[in-house]
UniProtKB/TrEMBL annotation:
It comes from the Bacteria. The chain crosses the membrane at residues 6-28. InterPro entries: Cupredoxin (IPR008972). It comes from Fervidibacillus halotolerans. This is Cupredoxin domain-containing protein. Gene3D superfamilies: Cupredoxins - blue copper proteins. Keywords: Membrane, Transmembrane, Transmembrane helix.
């Protein structure tokens, strides 16, 4: 009768190797069922970013009504050179004339309408989208959104 002697160190190595191959098989078998949440876009495609105008109102303890206008979201992120359509829907306020600081971009967002602003920045940095009607606290502002270009 022949006996095979396997040392304890080899048993651990064989078990670890088997676990490794089993985990690879399990991982691989589930990959065909997963879908990416963000499909890579062709270079010619244009990404859309949606934004709305909003308003906050309250009454202070002494009975004074105060309000403030905002963009939501307040910050968006773009890649340098990326082509984007910024779609702003006017929810609150009759009209918001806007500029993007450091550019020649101007537009007007009207209540109940969507304004589309094409964007493409070649310089990295942070650009401010400013409503000219609500620039300061005295004008129920500042109504500013930030465009961060990396």
């Amino acid at each position: 009768m022949n006996f095979v002697v396997i040392r304890g160190g080899w048993i651990i190595k064989i078990v670890l190797l088997l676990l490794f191959f089993i985990s690879i098989y399990i991982w691989y078998s589930f990959q065909w069922k997963t879908l990416p949440t963000f499909l890579s876009a062709e270079k010619e495609s244009i990404r859309e970013i949606h934004m709305v105008t909003g308003e906050f109102k309250t009454v202070t303890a002494d009975g004074k009504e105060i309000e403030s206008y905002r963009f939501s979201p307040g910050t968006i992120f773009l890649e340098k050179g990326e082509t984007v359509h910024l779609k702003i829907y006017g929810v609150n306020g009759d009209e918001h004339p806007v500029i993007i600081e450091g550019t020649d971009i101007k537009a007007t967002v009207k209540k109940g309408e969507e304004t589309i602003i094409p964007l493409q920045f070649e310089e990295e940095g942070t650009y401010r989208l400013i409503c000219l009607t609500h620039k300061e606290y005295e004008q129920n502002g500042p109504m500013i959104a930030y465009i961060v270009v990396d």
